[in-house]
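Quarterly update, task 2.4: copper (II) ion-bound model.
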Amino acid sequence: MKVIRTLAVLAVAALAWFAHPSALAQRMPLVTVYKSPTCGCCKDWVKHLEANGFRVDAHDVADVDRIKQNLGVRPQYASCHTAIAEGYTLEGHVPASDIKRLLAERPKGRGLAVPGMPGGSPGMESAPKQPYATLLIDDQGGARVFEQH
Ligand SMILES: [Cu+2]
């Protein structure tokens, strides 16, 4: 009986902890974003991440291309901003749902990229909608389709 009571107390304590807003915020992954200070769609992508519960640390930098090169993002996969989440590179307007799936599945590879700036992707809602794919960049710098949108 004592064991059951102890388990019940622990369960209630765990529920209280998980339901606590600051505890929830603590568990959301941090996304570090590098962008040009004049990039409007980059700011809109940051808002999209925050609206989906991510913590965002955004940095305005003069040379975003150098960061892309350092992270091994080939020019054909490049977009406006570049970000890092838990060791993965995120290039361009990657939807929050894809980032959540990436961090849950943790596939081998460098990270995700949405090349260019497809209309209708998160942060690019003002441009006409077009189909696009989120790519998974592999360790050799190549890529395959991770999700179709
Ligand atoms: Cu953009």
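Highlight for this quarter: The beta strands are 30-35, 55-60, 82-85, 88-92, 111-114, 133-137, 143-148.
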